[in-house]
Write a structure and sequence with these properties.
single chain, 73 residues, alpha+beta, Alpha-Beta Plaits, 4-stranded antiparallel beta sheet, metal ion binding, HMA_dom, Heavy-metal-associated domain-containing protein, HMA_dom_sf
Amino acid sequence: MSKISEFELQGACCANGIIRAKKVIKGIAGTGKVTIDLAQNIARVEGDVDPEAIVSALRAAKFTASHLSTAEQ
């Protein structure tokens, strides 16, 4: 079973921001597929990953982020 975590993400306002945010998220061990919905400011991350590690990494990269939910798929 895999997990999908959702995060509120602010600061990725263009294609460059999305690419940079995805690179930050994919740098966390256990991360699988990453999708970012710019219209809703939501990042979805598949994989067995610590949500707080993702939030911390995004904040260190100057994004505003918070963990919304994690669900088993």
